[in-house]
From TrEMBL:
The keyword Disulfide bond applies. One of its GO terms (molecular function) is cysteine-type peptidase activity. Transmembrane segments: none annotated. This is Peptidase C1A papain C-terminal domain-containing protein.
Length: 217
C-alpha cells in the first residue's frame, strides 16, 4: 500500500541521470522544486540542474554540494531555468544564469528545514511535498540495489549523496520511504529506492533523517 506519495499526485518528473558529475545535491533540490511547482501551479516542468552546478556558490559543482545552497541561489536569482533552456552537460561550466530567461513559476520565497533525526516530522513534510535529504550511499549493496524489496542496509551515516523523498508506504507491516535517485532508470526500481522507515537508528536508514530541506513557494 502506498501512502503520502507525490508520485501519485503527478508531482514528479521522469528519472534523470547525473552521470559522472557528483551533482546529486542539485538533482535532489530540483526534484523537490519540480514537485512543489506542480502541486502549487498544476504545471509539471523539468528544471535545470546544470544552472545550479554552474552557478551555486558554496557548493563545488561536480565535486559535490548542498541542496540548501541550491535553494538559496534560486531565491536570490528570482527563479531557475527550465531543463530545455539550460540543459544538463555532466560537467561544470561557466554560469549563464543572467543570460537565461527564468520561469517565474519556478521561483521560491524561502526553504524549510525538517527537524533533525525525526522521521515523524519528515513524514509530515513529505505528506505535503517532496523533500531533499542526504544519505550514505557508500555500501555496494546500496549502489547495486535492483529494486528487490525494501532496502534496510547495510549502510552508515557518512552522508555522501542526496536523494529526494517523494512518498512513503507500508507493505506487509514493513514501512518504507520512496526515494527518487539520479542514477538513471536502470538503477534500483526504475530509478527509485524503497528505504526502510522508522528504524531504530535515530538518524534513519542510511542517515536520511539527518538533514531534510524543502522549497516554499
Amino acid at each position: 500500500m502506498m501512502r503520502g506519495s507525490t508520485r501519485t499526485r503527478g508531482a514528479v518528473t521522469d528519472i534523470k541521470d547525473q552521470g559522472s558529475c557528483a551533482s546529486s545535491w542539485a538533482f535532489a533540490a530540483v526534484a523537490a522544486l519540480e514537485g512543489i511547482v506542480k502541486i502549487k501551479t498544476g504545471d509539471l516542468i523539468s528544471l535545470s540542474e546544470q544552472e545550479l552546478v554552474d552557478c551555486v556558490t558554496g557548493s563545488d559543482g561536480c565535486d559535490g554540494g548542498w541542496s540548501q545552497k541550491a535553494f538559496e541561489f534560486i531565491i536570490s536569482n528570482g527563479g531557475i531555468a527550465t531543463e530545455v533552456k539550460y540543459p544538463y552537460k555532466n560537467v561544470q561550466g561557466k554560469c549563464r544564469a543572467n543570460k537565461i530567461e527564468q520561469d517565474k513559476k519556478a521561483s521560491i520565497r524561502e526553504y524549510g528545514t525538517v527537524p533533525r533525526k525525526n522521521e515523524t516530522m519528515l513524514m509530515a513534510a513529505v505528506a505535503q511535498q517532496p523533500v531533499a535529504v542526504y544519505i550514505d550511499s557508500s555500501s555496494s549493496n546500496f549502489q547495486f540495489y535492483s529494486g528487490d524489496g525494501i532496502y534496510d542496509g547495510p549502510c552508515g551515516v557518512q552522508l555522501d549523496h542526496a536523494v529526494t523523498i517523494v512518498g512513503y508506504g507500508e507493505n506487509k507491516g514493513k514501512k518504507y520511504w520512496i526515494a527518487k535517485n539520479s542514477w538513471g532508470k536502470s538503477w534500483g526500481y526504475n530509478g527509485y529506492i524503497y528505504l526502510a522507515k522508522d528504524v531504530h537508528e535515530i538518524s534513519g536508514m542510511c542517515g536520511l533523517a539527518t538533514h531534510g530541506y524543502y522549497p516554499i513557494m
